[in-house]
């Protein structure tokens, strides 16, 4: 009976300690929230002063820009007044929102907004008077007086915020001084609870003595557990043996990969040999055919019939197209076989070089090529220049005969997640390059067809080409782990969108 009463007393003490701890914890939480709120009020005072400074600076900047333009007539100083009004009103709105709890400052905000609006209207009126050479000294003095009033009003509002700051800091310090007392109470309560827990553990230890009778049963369970562990060890040994076999298989696969790599080296050597033959042995007969055809026309023209001349001209044209085809095939093969050395480059420099390459064609067709500020990208410079050469060359080639070509090239940095395409990594940054022209375009169903090897949408007799240029462009983009798409309508120009990793 006595023991039962003692246990009851311990439980009462334990519950009382828990209740005390909860009380101090709640009190501590309340004080912390108060400290946070008062801290926010202190910070808000500083923010209001900062917003007042920003408003005044924005007003001064607007006046300085107009005055700079009036003195120098430099258009870089001319800043639209409507944009200034919008920006300054946003700053005042921010001040109004921050001082909702202060009626005096709310009234000051109303006065400040009206004064600034009057100042901006006066600034616009003075500018109009200046344009018509009617701006007087009186108008300038009136403008200065209004500006001084605004300055004084802002100083007044800042002084009010300084007073509030002192009051709020005092409240914050008062709340902060109470915090240690609450903390001490919380710690004391925790110690009491620990003491109570200690006595409870002693009690549990006494109870544990009564559990010794279960030891044999637990020992038997341990024996069964050991048997299970032995079985698991056997299974691990089997897995280890299987791992040895897997390693042998992996070694065999590595040997096979090395063989494939060796074969790939041999294939590359053969490709280099083919390139040499294509660039020398295959082109030499074509050059001779074109040379002798030219000589026949120049030296034997009077001895040839009309049909004979036509045959010779067709032969020369066919040899020329064959030579262009070989050159384009070589360019296509180099996009695969050449060493890929990436470096971060400014695309403006490359575009200037491309424009120089087409200087004669641009002058001949009265073409306009607009290049906006281009971003930096991680590229293979030689291949990227070849890419832009082909894109710009196509835009000039497929222009309308009665309309000067107008080509616009621009770029911006975007995230892969902005483009709904599985080929782009969502978290990676890409340089998005857009090339738009006003040429003859193509039908939308051919937007993928144009990138295929030897595919042509136009009569080769009307527009010369081999059908490899855009295939090379696509291959270069793939070498950069990027993406290219094309959109167009017939006789409405074409747009090429290129996505290249920015880094």
Short descriptors:
503 residues; 3 domains; flat; alpha+beta; five-stranded mixed sheet; Heat Shock Protein 90; two-stranded antiparallel sheet
Give structural notes.
There is one protein chain. This protein is of the alpha+beta class and 503 residues long. It folds into three domains: 2-207; 214-337; 341-501, Heat Shock Protein 90 (2-Layer Sandwich), CATH 3.30.565.10. It has ten helices and seven strands. It has helices spanning 2-72, 81-98, 103-131, 137-209, 215-299, 306-337, 347-357, 359-365, 381-397, 469-479; strands at 343-346, 368-371, 376-379, 406-415, 429-436, 483-488, 494-501. The strands form two sheets. It has a five-stranded mixed sheet, covered by helices on one side. A two-stranded antiparallel ribbon has the order 1-3. Strand 6 and strand 7 (494-501) form a beta hairpin. Helix 1 packs parallel to helix 3 (103-131) and helix 6 runs parallel beside helix 10. The longest helix has 85 residues, at 215-299. Mean pLDDT is 75; it is low at 458-463.
